[in-house]
Amino acid sequence: MTRVSRLFAAIAITLPLPLLLQPTVAIAQQASAKAVKSVEKTDPWIYRGTDIPHDPEWVFGTLGNGLRYAVRRNNVPPGQVSIRIAVDAGSMYESEQERGYAHLLEHLLFRQSKYLGVAEAIPTWQRLGATFGSDTNAQTSATQTVYKLDLPNASATTLNESFRLLSGMVREPVLSQPNINTEVPIVLAEKRERGGASMRIGDATRETFFAGQPLATRAPIGTDESLRGATAVSVQAFHDRWYRPDNTVIVAVGDADPMVLAGEIERWFADWKGKGKKTEAPDFGKPQAPAGSDPANPVGETRVLVEPDLPRNINYAFLRPYKQVIDNIEYNRGIMLDAISQAIINRKLEERARAGGSYLFAQVGQDKVSRSADGTFVNVTPLGSDWKAALKDVRAVIADAIANPPTQQEIDRELAEYDVAFASSVEERTVMAGSKLADDVVNAVDIREAVATPEVVLQVFRDMRARFTPEAIRDHTRALFAGAVIRGVMNTPVTGEADADAFRLALAEPVAATASSRDAAAAISFADLPPIGKPGTVLKSAPIGVMQVEWVQLSNGVRALLWPNNAEPGRVNLQVRFGSGYRGFTAQDAPYIQLGQMALIGSGIGPLGQDALDRISTGRKMGFDFRVDDASFQFSAETRAADLADQLYLFAAKLGMPRWDPNPVLRAKAASELQYESYATTPSSLMQRDLDWLLSNRDPRFETPSPKVLAGVTPEGFRKVWEPLLKQGPIEVLMFGDFKREDGIAALEKTFGALPPREAIPADAASRKVAFPAPQATPTVLHHRGDPNQAAAVIAWPSGGGVAGLSESRQLEILVQLFNNRLFDAMREHAGASYAPQVMSEWPIDMPDGGRIMAFAQLEPEAVPTFFAEASRIAKEIAATPPTTDELARITEPLKQKISRASTGNSFWLYQLEGASYDPQRAEKLRSLLNDYTQTTPQKMQELAKKYLTSREGWRLAIIPAGQELAKPAK
């Protein structure tokens, strides 16, 4: 649904901001700053031993204690500095008794450290404008632990303070027994929430694929036994062994002079000394075939699991020993040949699935996993119970690729896709987010490789085009499907359907190459496609008063908002809103809503089926996303000026000359049937299946269709529902980005301007509303079939909707963040009952009602009543007693910074102005946006809490294990 909370989704951050906030002035190098002594002006550490050209924008250095760093200026978004501290220690660095310590230590660093008292880290970062969980975060893998900070609105003072706090966290965390005793239940809650059938399959896959290697038994989450046995002495020993300067890399990228960033690293980390002699990294082992296996077909360990609520799935891998490479240009040429080889096979697999094969989905991919193995992995989802036929079909496609070289036309098609991707990276390099640049270096450090500029990548790729021959691709394909050992894991929902021996025999059985034809299809050109109709003309145009956005009305009534700008080079954001959205469906139409989101685009346009749509966009930057919102349907894509007219053609042709191929519908139906049972495996997936439906007072339009309902779905029924919807309702086109106005207008006139007049939305559709469930004396209870220690709980209140109430909806965002902080503190910090409870507000912009405020958490079944009690207590507490100004500041400052960063992107403005060509209020409401989100009073929060949180009892949902009853509240 189109709701205000989508403001805080991931948004491209690239465009200057003249309206809401002025960007922070970049932190200049201070004249009084002492010279940075550790910079490596020649032969920087990340490029040592490689012939990859240095990226001149990076500055590298090594401190006297061995700590390495990389710093760089970047102003995307303005004012932000992204800091990463990577410690070369993950779960494979643990002993048997330390399993889970690397991840536990990640938690403990946020608990208390040299400059931060107990539980002070989160509020401290919030006061600096950083949001915990997104701007401030950490992650632990098998080989590395990374601490992340995206510091908004960075100044010399906040930058210095941030490095000081981070240095205290990494160098001197307080690893006391009370802190460990507090944090272990939180880690165990995280482990519990990740559990279930999917986790069991993931664990089994890791144990099987990497049998005999540490990776097999070293999941970062650890074991209950080792975590509960953690002591201050044992955790401190792990920290002392691995957290040392010569095991650490710091990356800082942002709107600051690189020498200032390097100076801060020197200031806070140069005197750090490791304890004792450095411990070498453990041996990660290598995959080996069983003794006596066939070297030509070395099938080793196989495993079959029975998970009744998950669909059949087959994973198998060709595993080779991991070898530390010299990351040079020739090595990267080999990677590119490997990539084209995989792309050709994956396209063949997809084409076979689309044509009605024995599998729903299949894909191959090569990966070097945790410095433990170099593997080629094959994933297959069979359509029915005949898993052997699905596996054989996939293996036959692979066998064909091994035996026979592809055509040059097949190769050229994939080369065109890669070329446009690499060329787009060059065009967009000036707007690449600093956080991504920082993450790229951290990832390179982890795999012991270098980094290259987009220009170098493109040049290397184009210079080697003559090497992409059919024979070279076949040779690389053969190498990808050779290995020391082949291992596999399969899931089946039916006991007795397969076992490890049968699976092993199926993998070892010789298979004939499929007789698939070589791709020799003629290229498809937009010039050969029929016109949409007679081009229209611009009837009216005028500025809307926001930025330089222009409102345009075409002669057939279609309206558009245009904003040509060059702040995001090479990028154009497109969105088309039309029709009635959810309002257009009746209860009988409901099963076709989900299928439409999955299959409407794939069913084609005019003369183009799904394969032809793929082919016509080869080598182009085009997309075709579709979604159903509250009161409209939406197409969207990110394209570029050269492809703009053709992208608009595809969108308009879907409305003006839709095609109704049956196969995409049948495939979407099969996927929905397979997926349905898996919803019951965990509380969170059951909530995903049913929560919208329940909160909409069991409106059939929001119900996930069951296999019984799907059984009645047909391609003919699909067309009957969707064909009239494509003809109804007004159309609005939003076009923001790097294009010329005259080109955009001309493309609009030939495409959307050529559509016939639109039919009116039926009156009964316009009147359909979304109702909130009536108050209830007891919670609604659902039962899942997952682990017996898993549960979830939701409490919700109705709010509102519509443009007129936008200002209040923005204030509600402050209220829910206030609620969220208190619930987080109550359920995680104090009770240890939930890893990540959340509170959110949804406010439908296109409808006058249907909004809601929700709080939810995953927890143990016995803690469900505690959640309801705490959520109700917090709601009443806010309504009874206004929050403190400091508590609000911890919310409004991160919100201010988040808006500041989001509003530097075209996507932000496009979302904010959706519908403004028909409703000028939307543009007018932009004037108060910043104040609405960041300026409030304790009394205003109290007033909103009374209005929305305590004026009626919250609706409650409990999701508990099958066979259990809802626990009674504690007296």
From TrEMBL:
InterPro entries assigned: Metalloenz_LuxS/M16, Pept_M16_N, Peptidase_M16, Peptidase_M16_C
All copies of domain Peptidase M16 N-terminal, residue ranges: 73-191
Keyword hit for Nucleotide-binding: no
Keyword Lipoprotein part of the UniProt annotation: no
Limits of the Peptidase M16 C-terminal domain: 231-416, 715-891
Span of the signal peptide: 1-28
Single Gene Ontology BP annotation: proteolysis
Location of the region described as Disordered in the Swiss-Prot/TrEMBL record: 276-298
GO function term, MF aspect, one: metal ion binding
Keywords associated with the record: Hydrolase, Metalloprotease, Protease, Signal, Zinc
UniProt family annotation: Belongs to the peptidase M16 family.
PANTHER family, per the entry: NARDILYSIN, PROTEIN YHJJ
Name of the protein: Peptidase M16 family protein
Organism whose genome encodes this protein: Caenibius tardaugens NBRC 16725
